[in-house]
Amino acid sequence: MNPTQPLSRRTFLRGVGVTMALPWLESVPVWGDDRPKNSASEAPVRFACLFSGNGFHSKGWWAKGEGQDMELGKVLDPLKPHREKLLFLRGLYNAEALIGGIHSCQTGNLLTGAHLAPGGEIRSGISCDQLLAEKTKGQTKVPSLVLGTEPSIAAIHKNYSMIYSSHISWSSATTPTPLELYPALAFDRLFRDEVGRADTSVLDAVREDANSYKNTVSTADQRRLDEYLSSVREVEQRIEQAGKSGRLQGWRPTLDKPDMKRPADGIPQDVDQHMRLMCDILVLAFRTDTTRVCTLKLNNDHSSLRFPNLRAAGGTGGIDYMIHHLLSHTDGADWLKVNQFFAEQVGYIATKLDAVKEGDRTLLDNSMILFCSSMMTGNHNNDQLPVMTLSRGGGRIKTGRVLDYLGKPNRKMCSLYLSLLEKAGVKLKEFGDSKEKLAEI
Question: What is the model's pTM?
Fold first, then answer.
């Protein structure tokens, strides 16, 4: 391999049953075939949507000002270090979600803008993430990652399927994209040729190839490669340990102790570990360009998660006395703490992405991170939605701003998606219920 020559294909580290894409390296044009000789290519733009169900604290979601002087509401406290790369969007809404006023018909079309079928029929539309994945298919190993931390709800609520409450990503009008809830399987999908085969560490499998490749790149790239491989090892080890501290989330069993032998680890039962692992997998996926599209559903709308990892206000116990959905109707101090916990996940991802240099920009600069919910507060009000983005879309988005669309004629969520899709290189005349981009983005 000669890094002074343009590569005719993507470069991978390979081992038995393992294919591991490389991070951005200055001395090798790993992102494409059509770059000039002796030059590293520009990194691609990635898109991620992080969803938090049931809205936010009524007094905590706001922003004003610009840049480092931007003031943020208490919900967004964890994002203060990233104010200069934040774009706060006020007043956007989803017209089709106003129909029923319940969780199911407010969430299932959040990324589609489509009309939802009631009753036993399941119908929405293709979501913006899957449309982008389809347009970029073949450019990455995995077209998109659709991650979650809470299983789908199989029920009907006020004549709408709660499948809508459980999915924001749709591969077709009738097919919600399956959620990957297991960190180990999501990890394997990034690196293993056959998902679920985890007899050896992925790093052990590619060690020989990695060592030989390091001799062909610059000293700075050798350091980048070492840091990258270390981050993969760290996530792999944490997956092995996940769920062993036993802080149960969500639904509680009726027995104090199990009456059967404990099964093998699957979905981690520690909500903080589970979310953090999914965040790290998203970062790894973007860092290696294994995928450029990801949705991370931090919880369901109408969520049953509990939070024993967070200390309740005025007490010594955790915030596990009430499920997330019911807590959202209290609007108190514990609800705010849970909101901040979710915002911390976004901030964690931003910090990790911003620490990765890709030429003159960072991985965060080369991404578009959308953070939103399908209602403003737990009282189901969605005449305007909580929406913000982090990162600069490869230098195409001016950040450190507050854009207020309340009262303006074009304030559709799908208008935002048209704008973001264009930043990622996909130009459309219309999407969902919109035919007009948000010009200010």
Answer: 0.83
